[in-house]
Design goal:
Length: about 160
């Protein structure tokens, strides 16, 4: 197998924090799977970009999909605040009255707080699946995750 076809040649992946957070949230909110995709040809330093859709490919080698949940230390970031969870929290608060508008604002506050924690909870390494088994690679976060860093598709190209 040529090096460009061998995903074990990968030593590190660069990911924008914004892409990781967007993929994490979208994967929980949509019926379409969302991940970060590493596309061949493979080399030591690669870029993983947000991708929606299935991982069915005819071409070989196939791109590698990394789940955003594998890139976020969920213990450090805490659970992602779902609308149901934030509604339950709001209704359980004896000092707050429930309204759809209050729930919307409260949910937005909880998601913003989760994002602040999650952008600082990007893991240092991740195990990717390869035809030869798992392979650990370093994770190099780009940007701050506050929407001001490199956007999806900007920055270094694969390879």
């Amino acid at each position: 197998m040529a090096d460009a076809d061998d995903p074990t040649a990968i030593r590190s992946i660069a990911v924008t924090v914004d892409d990781v957070l967007a993929a994490y949230e979208a994967d929980r909110q949509r019926d379409v799977p969302v991940a970060l995709r590493i596309t061949p040809p493979f080399s030591g330093r690669m870029r993983a970009r947000i991708h929606a859709g299935s991982g069915d490919y005819d071409a070989r080698p196939a791109p590698i999909h990394v789940q955003a949940s594998d890139l976020v230390d969920e213990e450090e970031a805490g659970p992602y605040p779902t609308p149901d969870r934030t509604e339950d929290e709001l209704r359980a608060d004896p000092d707050a009255s429930y309204s759809p508008e209050r729930h919307h604002d409260y949910h937005a506050e909880r998601v913003a707080a989760w994002r602040r924690r999650a952008r600082d909870a990007i893991v240092e390494a991740v195990r990717i699946d390869t035809p030869d088994g798992g392979h650990e690679v370093a994770v190099k976060p780009l940007g701050s995750g506050d929407g001001t860093g490199p956007q999806a598709g900007s920055g270094p190209r694969d390879g």
